[in-house]
User: Which sequence fits this backbone?
């Protein structure tokens, strides 16, 4: 199954994104113990798309696409911004960057998801979560 959500570029729509993800996971019967990690990862990515990608321009949309197949959850978050050089985001765990607020969201996303990929010059973020077959058998 797959679903898609389009929201205006305003942070007040993050709650709608959370409900969208929760509903999808529940409908797919995915393990509830992963819910918090997945919701946090997707909402942080959408937050970045709204804030840094579209600069909260209400004339621009953020697309969230979600799909589950073969024990894997795929999420795509796409904004209408110019993108960014994701190779230049500073590592927030290095001492010189501890007080720097840039890069923390991407760091969180990369550490919670099983795989993160940037496309379209960074305006499209592809996220993958893997589930074991045992997760499905327990439901």
Assistant:
């Amino acid at each position: 199954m797959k679903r898609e959500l389009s929201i205006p570029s305003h942070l007040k729509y993050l709650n709608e994104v959370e409900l969208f993800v929760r509903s999808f996971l529940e409908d797919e019967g995915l393990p509830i113990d992963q819910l918090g990690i997945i919701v946090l990862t997707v909402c942080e990515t959408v937050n970045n798309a709204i804030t840094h990608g579209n600069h909260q321009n209400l004339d621009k949309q953020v697309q969230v696409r979600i799909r589950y197949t073969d024990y894997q959850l795929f999420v795509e978050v796409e904004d209408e911004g110019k993108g960014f050089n994701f190779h230049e985001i500073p590592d927030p765990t290095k001492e010189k960057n501890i007080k720097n607020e840039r890069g923390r969201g991407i760091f969180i996303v990369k550490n919670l998801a099983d795989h993160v990929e940037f496309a379209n010059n960074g305006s499209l973020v592809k996220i993958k979560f893997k589930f074991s077959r045992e997760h499905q058998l327990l439901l």
